[in-house]
Amino acid sequence: MFSQLKPLPTDPILGLMAAFKADTNDKKIDLGVGVYKDEQGQTPVLKAVKKAEEFRLANETTKSYIGLAGNLEYCQKMEQLLLGDAHPALLADRVRTAQAPGGTGSLRVAAEFIKRCNEQATVWVTTPTWANHISLFEAAGLNVKEYPYYDYDNKGLLFDDMVNTLSQVPAGDVVLLHACCHNPSGMDLNFAQWQKVAEIAKVQGFTVLVDIAYQGFGTSLDEDAAGLRHLASQVDELIICSSCSKNFGLYRERIGACSVISKDQATADIANSVMLSVVRSIYSMPPAHGADIVNTILSSDELTAMWHQELDDMRSRINGLRSLLKDKLNDKCEGMDFSFIERQHGMFSFLGINKEQIERLQKEYSIYIVGSSRVNVAGVSKDNIDYFADAVAAVTK
Ligand code: PMP
Does the first or last residue of the chain, that is N or C, have fewer Cβ atoms within 10 Å of its Cβ? Predict the structure, then answer.
């Protein structure tokens, strides 16, 4: 049976990671993979996480299963982190959450849940979007279509075109929005634009899925969720897929959550039973470690304060690098304007250079960027920023 299989190409980002690893140039820079890096190019374990892990090691009493929805205290803490403590949807008991293996796991749960609601549903994603969105929804057997989002020419949003397309999406379909720090463009909706999208969702009756994988990496924990919270206050139904990979630095622990908001408590209970049945048929129960760490941090004022500080530090570093990168590139690359880098949020921006220039960066300078020209701003440091800007200037001359 296996001999019928045809080999598949390596995922471009994973291929890039392997090529970077094999490169012996000590000036090499990896701007491909989407993980936060500090000034030393490391992705360290947060101190708050280490403390929580020490606590867990000392106090864990069993390795028995944790149940389909996972750690219920974690689920509740995540709802509060996402929506704020006193959100009307929480007060009305309309939210149900299942812990999931990473943001990706939560998206797969959401995909199967959508399929149980409407097998014919089309999921609408931004052009462009995180590549895995498309394969993930298609793998679940759903149709995927794109709506205009990033304006490659003007390095902004195609908001009017987005509005036009969304105004034709019917009830029964799902529109996926990135809450903040859009991957791959870094270009986010402002609050007025979120309000407009909420109006369209109400008129059209489609369901919105908000993917929030970078809460706290843009402006602040609250501001990064402001659009999501507004939307949740306006519509009857909403799906939220969240990830703790980036903001808690828990990437390999695979911790996220899928939250479903329904029109009333009774529907929420039914939706919850369906979501848990989906979980049962995919992985039965989620892993315990990551949820326990997040719950321990969010249950302690001291650890929460420590985490807030560490998250602020990561965000400040990214935003500082955005300003510096803009200045250096504008200085060194004559006739080019990189001011968009400072207007965007999170780790990613498109440099807007072509394939040949990207290849030259890799071959001649050992600078690794994915083919779309998306760069992970956190991959730059004060030590290599001049080398990087000089290289970009050289290949774009
Ligand atoms: N959504 C988006 C937009 C992402 O960028 C990512 C991670 N790259 C995820 C979801 C999934 O995150 P996780 O690693 O937690 O599965």
Answer: N
260 beta partners: 96, 239
Query: Active site includes 246?
Result: yes
Which CATH number covers residue 229?
Answer: 3.40.640.10
Q: What CATH number did the domain enclosing 349 receive? A: 3.90.1150.10
Q: Measure Cα distances from 197 to 55, 205, 227, 231 in Å.
A: 43, 12, 10, 8
Q: Across-strand partners of 100?
A: 256
Domain boundaries, position 369 = 10-44+316-396
Atom in ligand 1 nearest the alpha carbon of residue 133: 1
> Going by CA atoms, what residue is nearest to atom 11 of ligand 1?
103
Catalytic residue among 37, 51, 155, 246: 246
240 and 329, same domain (yes or no): no
Note whether 130 and 198 are same-domain residues.
Answer: yes
Does residue 214 share a domain with residue 187? Answer: yes
Model confidence over 16-45: pLDDT tens digits?
989 999 999 999 999 998 999 999 999 999
**Residues facing 257 on adjacent strands:** 99, 242
Distance 19 CA to ligand 1 centre (A): 22
ipTM score assigned to the predicted complex: 0.99
Mean pLDDT (whole number) for 368-391: 95
Are 126 and 26 contained in the same domain? no
User: Do 105 and 245 sit in the same domain of this protein?
Assistant: yes
- For the full predicted model, state whether its pTM sits above 0.90: yes
| 183 in contact with ligand 1, CB cutoff 6 A | yes
Nearest to 282 by CA among 127, 27, 68: 68
Does residue 269 share a domain with residue 124? yes
Which one of 17, 123, 130, 252 would you pick to mutate in the ligand 1 pocket, going by the greatest count of ligand atoms within 8 A of its CB?
130
Q: How many domains does the chain have?
A: 2
The 10s digit of each residue's pLDDT in 144-156 is 999 999 999 999 9
Q: Is 130 in the pocket of ligand 1 (CB under 6 A)?
A: yes
Whether 163 and 245 share a structural domain:
yes
Distance CA 393, CA 376 (A): 18
